[in-house]
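residues and backbone:
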Amino acid sequence: MDAKIIIYIILATIAAIFFAIQLIICFKFKSITIKLIPVCVLILLFLLSIPTYAGVFSSDSYNAHKLLAILLAFGAGSAFVGDIIAWLIYGIYCQYV
């Protein structure tokens, strides 16, 4: 298998996992604060990737920090896509049911 296909599969799996978690949380809990916990976690991951990319946490291996930040950003981005799709499905369900 090509490396790009494996990366796409991993990102799609992350999006599917976060989609399932967010959809379950949306249907099980009434409180909006509990429903927004996965979104807040993903925003924190995005914010964590910025200083990681800049190499704030260590001064030696700068390239490793860039790689880790890119992995964090892509992982959080694909998970965020899963969350957005779950919120859309939940919104459509609540509007029509």
